[in-house]
Amino acid sequence: MELSNRITHLTPGGSDGWEVFYKARALKTAGEPVTELTIGEHDIRTHPSILDAMHVSAKGGHTGYAAVPGTQALREAVATRIQTRTGVATGAENILITPGGQAALYAAFNAICDEGDTALFIDPYYATYPGTIRGIGGVPQAIPAYPRNGFQPRAEDIEEHAKGATSLLINTPNNPTGAVYTRDTLQAIADTCIANDLWLISDEVYDTQVWDGSHLSPRALPNMADRTLVVGSMSKSHAMTGSRVGWVCGPADAIEHLINLATHTTYGVPGYIQDAALFALGEGTPLEDVVSAPFSRRRKITEDLLAKQNIVKGCPISGAMYAMLDVRATGLSGQDFANALLDEHLIATMPGESFGTAAAGHVRVAMTIDDETYTSALQTLLDFAKDKAS
């Protein structure tokens, strides 16, 4: 018996460049003291007050089937959060609660792409983007955003591939680069989407982690609300990665169809987890600030250490929990640098090549370990780069 082409071709070539990550995990499992600067997992856990709310809800009996679109209270809370932040009128009818941001991405593509449709996305990209597009039968097409432009995508590069495409996926604040798209960048993207009749999917899961500038949702730009689907999540803003609760925000008619999709796929999110998310959102920005504070500190640590040497170049860390480091002065590719650093110092980073081609010669560092260990690991990385460049 054979499996479907769709499932066996989600990630052509195997791991999509994540060999270093898997190697690091294997070493750690074998008992090696690997320092992981790889994935976006907070070193702090979900706040105890959120867990208390989850516990109270579960003990209170909210453990059966919950409303598939999400509880009315949570949908309204998410809508209020979005309206407050963007100024765009948003109601519960514009919100579908999903099992995390990844499920929201998959749902969004199901809403707008048919089999064989071309779906554009920006390179460097979050690792699951092309596989998600293939998973709904779409054809992924990467649009490069280069370090010389601060990883800001250019409208002319999107325009080159826009004819005949159905959609464009963007992510700001950006994983893996740390770029926060400017108003000019987003307006150019919006103009291109309108001119080419593209749907826009805007992945905004890092919207609470902005260090320079400000976050602008493209849904708030003129004539974009009816062609934009926004993906959000509690994972990064509230350190609720394992709880798996996110959302899609979009036109009411699209959300109505996505509710039907959820009925036939995920069948919703557990009620006690939704209640915990509702509590967390009710705590407002003070709790979000507690969650984001470590990354703001480590951004400063990173910039200070980079300023004391001249081998590794840092790309602007404007948002998110990552630093994209240019290691081309060592003469190594990002892949080779990351492998050698792991082999010689048991420090695991992600090669820029893991996220496409535009960040070749870079490594991504996740600022997700305690300050002291992070400082030591980053200094070792910089000393290693200096030795390799000598």
Description:
The chain has 390 residues and is of the alpha/beta class. The protein has 2 domains: 5-45 and 286-389, Aspartate Aminotransferase, domain 1; 48-283, 3-Layer(aba) Sandwich (Aspartate Aminotransferase, domain 2), CATH 3.40.640.10. It contains 13 helices and 13 strands. The strands form 3 sheets. Strands 2-8-7-6-5-3-4 form a 7-stranded mixed sheet, with helices on both faces. The radius of gyration is 21 Å and the shape is globular. The mean pLDDT is 96. It is an enzyme of class 2 (transferase).
Lateral strand order in the biggest sheet: 2-8-7-6-5-3-4
Uncertain regions spanning at least 5 consecutive residues: none
Reported by name, the CATH topology of the largest domain is Aspartate Aminotransferase, domain 2
Question: What overall geometry do the principal axes of the alpha carbons give?
Answer: globular
Total individual domains: 2
Q: Give the structural class.
A: alpha/beta
Computed Rg: 21 Å
Can you identify the CATH class of the largest domain?
Answer: Alpha Beta
Task: Estimate the strand proportion.
Answer: 5-15%
Overall average pLDDT: 96
Order of helices and strands: HHEHHEHEHEHEHEEEHHHEEHEEEH
The level of helicity is 40-55%
Count up the helices: 13
Main β sheet profile:
7 strands, mixed
Provide the CATH architecture of the largest domain: 3-Layer(aba) Sandwich
CATH superfamily of the largest domain: Type I PLP-dependent aspartate aminotransferase-like (Major domain)
> How many distinct beta strands?
13
**Alpha-carbon distance between the two ends:** 55 Å
